[in-house]
Design a protein that fits this description.
By secondary structure, this protein is α/β, with parallel strands linked by helices. It has 14 helices and ten strands. It folds into two domains: 212 residues, Spore Coat Polysaccharide Biosynthesis Protein SpsA, Chain A, CATH 3.90.550.10; 115 residues.
């Protein structure tokens, strides 16, 4: 059995996928790289097949009709045979020295008596044109270099959360919890790091800058204009997260720090949805924002009160045109500080 399965979702990725795959190949035969060609119309399929031919003990290729990022991750997870599972998007890459340290850590854990549900590491925003790169670290919030539980997790700063780039899950955990991402929907990476959390019993944090998250490609899904054009998909993911949290609230509430983390993560996603709807500059967008908050209120009044009347919820719901301008200004400050979008 392989130690680590890495799914690489690809859609028309010919211009950059080789940098991604080359950074993963160095992991050797303990790693299984599953390239998922999600209905590409360029040379993606040919490039993927060439890697499988050159590295048959490491690379597998899945060709499927286009189903979006979620469908590609689903296919990679279904095919994964490794003990652990990681997603690396085809325009991103990993740092070699950190990669070796992560593999060594997973080997050490699996050779002992303990099992691990989730490994966390840092990621770097590789933003196009930026002189300095923002590193998302967790050293203030998580114990380092040992297995720990939710009870030992400390406070996360606002805007700082465990993203898909940060995590490696135990494969069997993802399969047993029934994780299935929606097809033809962007932003499902939020579900990937949200829905498994109630099943995570323990974690391990390595303070290494492993994942390099590229931002700045034209048409990229995290570009603000693109996000506004796809706002209905952002709202769909947001509502799925609301449904999941409220449907599992009794189980989640038994672990206070898990509950706080998941509620705070949902708060961030709801704030992003709200500000994008404000930024759309349309009456339709404002109506959708009101409907989203009403959706939360109908699902769970306790959750609504916590989200709506917190600092961020209040700032997203200031009345009138002047209030919306203040909301946007607050958002821009966060953009500059956290260097997202």
């Amino acid at each position: 059995m392989k130690l680590l399965s890495v799914a690489v979702p690809c859609y028309n990725s010919e211009a950059y996928m080789e940098k991604c795959i080359d950074s993963l190949i160095v992991g050797g035969e303990d790693v299984e790289i599953i390239i998922v060609d999600d209905g590409s119309t360029d040379r993606t399929a040919k490039i993927a097949d060439s890697y499988a031919k050159r590295f048959p003990a490491i690379v597998r290729v899945i060709h499927q009709e286009n189903g979006g990022h979620g469908a590609a991750v689903n296919a990679g997870l279904a095919a994964a045979s490794g003990l652990y599972f990681k997603v690396v998007d085809s325009d991103d890459w990993v740092k070699e020295s950190a990669y070796y340290k992560i593999l060594d850590t997973l080997r050490d854990i699996t050779s002992g008596d303990s099992s691990l549900d989730m490994l966390i590491s840092n990621f770097v925003y590789e933003k196009e044109g930026a002189a300095r790169h923002k590193v998302m670290k967790y050293r203030h919030a998580l114990p380092q270099d040992r297995i720990f539980t939710w009870s030992e997790v400390r406070h996360f700063h606002k805007g700082q959360y465990i993203l898909m780039h940060s995590v490696i899950f135990r494969t069997r955990l993802l399969k047993d919890c029934g994780l299935t991402l929606p097809e033809h929907t962007f932003y499902v990476d939020n579900l990937f790091v949200f829905e498994p959390l109630p099943f995570v019993r323990n974690m391990y944090y390595l303070d290494v800058n492993f994942y390099r998250y590229y931002i700045g490609r034209e048409g990229q899904s995290v570009n603000e204009k693109v996000m506004i054009s796809r706002i209905d998909q952002q709202i769909r993911v947001n509502k799925i997260m609301i449904d999941y949290l409220t449907d599992h609230f009794d189980k989640i509430c038994t672990r206070r720090k898990l509950k706080n983390y998941m509620v705070n993560y949902l708060e961030i996603i709801t704030v992003v949805s709200s500000i994008l709807l404000i930024r759309s500059g349309t009456e339709e967008g404002l109506a959708k924002k009101r409907e989203l908050w009403e959706y939360i209120k109908k699902k769970d009044i306790r959750l609504y009160i916590r989200l709506r009347y917190g600092i961020m919820g209040n700032s997203m719901n200031l009345p009138g045109r002047g209030g919306r301008k203040i909301s946007v200004d607050c958002y821009k400050i966060c953009q500059r500080f956290f260097k997202f979008n």
